[in-house]
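Input/output pair, single chain:
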Amino acid sequence: MRIRGERECKDCGTRWSYYETGSVDCPNCGSLRSVGRDERTEHTATAATLDLTEARSLLGAEAADTRAAAERAAEACHEFVRGQGFIRAGSLAPLDGTAVGARELRQVATELARGLRTDDEEERYFIDLLGGVDEGERPPPETVPDSLRAARGRAVASALDVYRRDATAYLDAHPDNEARAVLDTLEDHVRRVEALDGDVSPAHAERLLGVARDVGTYLREDDENALAAARDRLDRIG
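Output:
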């Protein structure tokens, strides 16, 4: 979406940045009447934050309710990732751990909330994920229970699909055939993960994430080593 994100209120003259606030109303007087003061710029990012306070409080209560905590975590993550993008004021943002982890927490929490029963390993994994995802922390691949590996795979595929879409849109304005070729190959791998409903090894999913992150680094920093690393990851995936 191309927008004029630097806004000026027609009623009181206050200026603000939609890129930072995600709000169309004036922060001073609340008016919806404003004009853009910059050129139209690609922008898909949101200003949403991931608030897991309620889900954590349900686990911290005297009578901890894992199912209720999972339901609330899934809802919070759904709100956070809805409409999320990775182009901010024309620049391609990194694919950070919170963007990926929120999708994983939503998948894992949904499975726990719907399941008739959960085992201790699944609950521990859910608690670990819930504890750090808003800070960009995700449990390492080797800790994923077999019963939740498809949930992790689906989450990674979802994040990669959105990131690849935005990176491709970024390349429309900043052409780079080498980066586009890597993204095209990455798309093929993502489609395979989707066809398997996410049922791939967590290590494989992490390697695909590494490809996307390397391409992002290359595009932001013109780092040829990052592009070479992305190609190397793809070669090792096969």
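The chain has a mean pLDDT of 94. Strands lie at 2-3, 6-9, 15-17, 34-36, 41-42, 87-88, 91-92.
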